[in-house]
Amino acid sequence: MSLVNLSHLCSHLQNASKARLGLTSLPHTNLHLSLLHSLQRAGFLSTITLGGPTPPPPSPILGHPQDPAGSAITQTNRATRRLWVGLKYWDNEPVLSRMGMVSKPTRRIWMGVEELRDVARGVKSGYVEGLKGIGECLFVSTDRGIMEVRECVERGVGGMVLCRVL
């Protein structure tokens, strides 16, 4: 797991939402895809579409069925695959206003269920501040995939704290 690439993803999404972009692209990796799916489940993103270096046509972004021709992944186009992400806005303000890493490449923060429960309740645990604001989320990489901290507490799993989203 490359936390450097994940920090690039965090800063890219934060900058894209501040620039009021409706659609942005990120490199396709399994880690990026699973974090983006978690962000979409939490309500920060509208769409995630796998595409090439050019933006996809509006039909897959709007949820209409797409023509499968031309979308096959081969060895020649694997390196150019991109994830096209649709950002959400509410009352002309970005839903994803701030996104930052908690674990860093030089300091990875692992937490058990009890520490994650404290953080979900708003209490500081170790290096991690508690969740204070409405809509604030903390994403954790577990052996069952990337989950939000409240979901980790419900399922009783711990893991490495990745990033905080406001």
Please write out the topology.
Blueprint lengths: L2 H16 L4 E5 L2 H13 L2 E7 L6 H4 L20 E6 L1 E2 L2 E2 L4 E3 L8 E2 L1 H9 L15 E6 L2 E4 H7 L3 E7 L1
Antiparallel strand pairs: 1-3, 2-3, 4-5, 6-10, 7-10, 8-9, 8-10
Helix pairs in contact: 4-5
How would you briefly describe this protein structure?
With 166 residues, the chain is an alpha+beta fold. 30% of the residues lie in helices and 27% in strands.
Distance between the termini: 23 Å
Strand content: 25-35%
Overall number of strands? 10
Structural class comes to: alpha+beta
Radius of gyration: 17 Å
Series of H and E elements: HEHEHEEEEEHEEHE
Unreliable spans: none
Number of helices: 5
**Biggest sheet character:** 5 strands, antiparallel
Give average pLDDT, whole number: 91
The residue fraction in helices comes out at 25-40%
Q: Report the principal-axis shape.
A: globular
